């Protein structure tokens, strides 16, 4: 299943992609879910799919912000303010790293014969962690707004870029603790 519409419209009233994925089941899938043992397996797969969709949405939003930064780099060149290009490139590189990490993160899969079994509660915790990444995308957008305003005003550019770099570095540090979301459930 591929999500083509924006997250706000795809979430429904509760704002949860898990319900969207659940609602997309066809008649045959609903019938097959009645087979003993299959229902739990399928529910886990649906949770994983919802988390994957959520992460792709977050990565897409962050990629939109990265594109804004590329436009700001061009604006700096046009305005002959090339002394800030390296600093802005540093922000772009850190943001790209975050985007790549979010896109390629595991989504709680453990095969049938793995020693570690991932339970529904752990997948839900992973989804909740990833849902908070939407706030990170908003913070990044806000910091890029600050950089844009500073470039336009031609003052405070260094401080604005430093603020952006700090937010993106913190987001990368937070994402490094993603696996702990599953571990906390078992405590």
From the N-terminal CA to the C-terminal CA, the straight-line distance is: 34 Å
Shape call: elongated
The helix/strand series, from N terminus to C terminus, equals HHHHHHHHH
Count of DSSP helices?
9
The share of residues in extended strands comes to: under 5%
Largest sheet features: none
Radius of gyration: 20 Å
* Unreliable runs: 1-14, 109-116
Percentage of residues assigned to helices: over 70%
Number of domains: 1
Q: Could you tell me the mean pLDDT?
A: 77
Number of strands: 0
Which structural class should the secondary elements be placed in? mainly alpha
How would you describe what is shown here?
The chain is 73% helix and 0% strand. The model is unreliable at 1-14 and 109-116 (pLDDT under 50). It contains 9 helices and no strands. It is elongated, with a radius of gyration of 20 Å. With 187 residues, it is mainly α. The chain has one domain (7-185).
Summarize this entry quickly:
Helix content is 73%, strand content 0%.
List keywords for this structure.
187 residues, mainly alpha, 9 helices, disordered N terminus
What is the fold's blueprint, element by element?
Elements: H1 7-11, H2 17-23, H3 27-32, H4 38-78, H5 85-104, H6 120-131, H7 133-153, H8 157-175, H9 180-185
Helix pairs in contact: 2-4, 4-5, 4-6, 4-7, 5-8, 7-8
């Amino acid at each position: 299943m591929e999500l083509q519409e924006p997250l706000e419209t795809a979430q429904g009233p509760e704002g949860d992609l898990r319900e969207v994925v659940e609602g997309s089941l066809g008649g045959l899938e609903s019938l097959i879910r009645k087979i003993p043992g299959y229902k739990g397996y399928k529910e886990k797969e649906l949770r994983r799919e919802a988390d994957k969709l959520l992460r792709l949405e977050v990565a897409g939003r962050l990629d939109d912000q990265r594109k804004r930064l590329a436009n700001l780099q061009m604006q700096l060149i046009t305005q002959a303010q090339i002394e800030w290009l390296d600093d802005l490139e540093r922000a772009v590189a850190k943001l790209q790293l975050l985007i790549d990490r979010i896109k390629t993160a595991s989504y709680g899969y453990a095969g049938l014969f793995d020693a570690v079994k991932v339970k529904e509660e752990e997948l839900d915790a992973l989804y909740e962690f990833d849902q908070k990444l939407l706030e990170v995308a908003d913070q990044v957008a806000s910091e890029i707004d600050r950089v844009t305003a500073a470039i336009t005003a031609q003052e405070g550019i260094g401080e604005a870029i430093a603020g952006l770099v700090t937010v993106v570095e913190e987001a990368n540090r937070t994402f490094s603790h993603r696996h702990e979301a599953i571990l906390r459930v078992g405590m």
